[in-house]
Predict the structure.
Amino acid sequence: MKLKIKILLANPLSFMGLLLISLVFGSAIFADFITPFPLHKGAVVDFSNFNQAPNLTNIMGTDLVGRDLFTRIIYAFRISIMLGVVVLIISVPIGVFMGLLAGYSGGKLDFVLMRITDVFLSIPPLVLAMAVMGLLEPTILNGMLAVTAMWWPWYTRLIYNLTRSEKEEGYVVAAEVVGASRWHIMFREILPNCTHAIITKMTLDFGFVILIVSSLSFLGLGVQAPTPDLGSMVAEGARYLPDSWWLTVFPGLAILIIVFGFNLVGDALRDMMDTDS
Amino acid sequence: MSDSLLDIQNLSLSFQGLTETVDVLDNINLSISRGERVALVGESGSGKSVIARIILGLLQSQKGAIVKGSVRFRGIELEAATGNQIESLRGREISMIFQDPTSSMNPVYKIGTIFHEILNRGTHNISKKLALIKASKLLEEVSITEFKRVLESYPFQLSGGMNQRVMIALALANKPALLIADEPGTALDVTVQAQTLKLMHNLVKKNNTAVLFISHNLGVVHQFADRVYVIYKGRIVESGSTSSIFENTKHPYTKALMNAVPKITSKSFFDASDDSSLFKQPAFHHKDREIGQ
Amino acid sequence: MSKPLLSIKNVSKSFSLGDYEIQALQQVSLDLNKGECLAIVGESGSGKSTLANIIMGIYPQSDGEISFKGSTLPSKRLLSHRKDIQFVQQNPLSSINPSRSIGESLRLPLDVHRIGHANERNNRVSELLTEVGLTSNYSKRYPSTMSGGQLQRVAIARALACAPELVVLDEPTSSLDVLVQSRVLSLLQKLRKKRSLSFLFITHDLAVVRNIADYVAVFKEGKLVELNGVNELFSKPVHSYTKRLLSAIPVISEDEIQLLNQIKEKE
């Protein structure tokens, strides 16, 4: 474990990734302290100051109702992280459980579970999320549910493949021959050998979840006003390009930072996994 | 010595990692003359397999590898040799056979195509037709009578024993001066291994090919080699003719190896001492070079 | 005469691969008595590992019957069978879970079969480790920091954890180095005596067989071709395949060479 952290720090790319992620998390956690206009995260208007280009008071400019863009972006980080965490915390255990069960049981259970998974996998992710949102009210909660619903199958497939190959390993045979129950074998023998893959995937996914939620918000289906969200900000600002460029560019850059940071770290984790095997 | 084919002196190898340097080989001296069959015996982790890769120039480009010392082939210092010179040595003057015959051949090529590629190294731009004729003769020499079928097959379609013989034929195709055999037959059954070794023995004798035979199997070494080098943790601990090593064993490590091989004349196993400080004794070199046979 | 511990009667096994049918075992019958070490020798494709897997209940036989202590072994093994018949596989790097500590891997059989009180099981783990020549602090270590020889000792400790009557060993030392191999074999011999175990020892190495087995069964292409006491097999082999196996042993000492020559001369 210590060696892995050392390797992550030694590689310049993953170091940069870690730096970016710390920046994002740090600012999200300390949003209340580092933002100049903390109230602007909510429903505040200041029409005397609206649509200002970046200046000394508002380093990223102001939006159409006069709120400080920098402040809103930092708070949007917070929302994005929360969304990412909630989506993954729910979808990963579901996906992993199904993958383990299908992969180890084989036979009819395998068939049924994997065909259900295939159905979900075959629908383009954003379309699926939009369909779910179409049925439900557009709220943050429903946005999260929609993304969760389309996220778990990827973990099922990953864990299913891993389980199928681990099943043939000597230690699984040894546990079976000793008389261990299938639950023990799935969760205490096979699952520990999947954790590296799961963590790597979760890291890479984090950026994508945020991207998808932002896309939903961009379409008006996720986070609603006045809550700040990077996707919505990009959507609103798009109409005013290229004049009020700051309205789109800064939120866009913010999305880039999150996704890029997690991607770099995720890639490094994946490379480590390859060398392990 | 004009008969000297391979001359390794003071060879050392270490790997520079992120956090530490690992020493793999320490001051190796090894020589092979024309037609000699020399065995390099050691357990896993002793460094024996790395030596083969150094001779072929395959290790030097590996990240973090620090190679010191001299490796001369026919008097030419391999380190100083140009890329072209080394390329022309590999597959022509020096060839190699590996532990698992089936996996060391490219699975997407037919045996005939592989032969063509190898023969092309010896005779540039050799036609496919001529290559296949030559290949048939080579396969006959390794006692493969159905050579037409074999040449048309892919490696996975043939048995391990068959592939081992094919590999020997490939290795000897360009009549190399030195053949390096890295644990040949280890992946095969005992009876097949015995056959294969007999075959190899006859062929190298016929062509006066020198062999560097890398193995952990003392019985096979006893059957096949003229001289033996015993390697332990990157150092040569004993060297000499086969008869000296087996009948007049001097170094504690070699003695332990000999005792550890289960014998059909005994009733219990040798409980080798865990004390590896015993093995750190200085090397013993028997003074009885028997050159060739 | 007492009943054999393990009785294999006319066991056959075939595998189907698409259109093909592979006959891995054909009508094999043999008995193992309590306290004996029966070696099964053969080359690849002989069916010896298939028989081991069938005995361990990894998959069922296609035909024939296996009985243990007089009663038939069902294809779905009972927990008591799992306790009495244990297994040591060839590759310790694969047979010990890389993501669990040695202590956890050794506790598993104790927990499954509820050996002793839950809080004394860790002591038993330490005892097992010492019994196979490792110190008790190995309990906290992970396989990636250990050698093949050490891991195989752990595998042996695991097999002995619930005091089985029969241990099936499938090429237990074939993937180990020469010196390590002899130490592990020596350990197995000691443990067998100490705990009065019965061994079903599968190997391709006849020299090993000579030193550990009481009886030898020679398998060729799924069939049992010769079954005899170890001394008899080595001095008066009957089947031509047995003779071929014997003459292929790579021996290193003069006595052995003479012995093999004697066998050859008798033909």
Q: What stands out?
A: The mean pLDDT of chain C is 91.
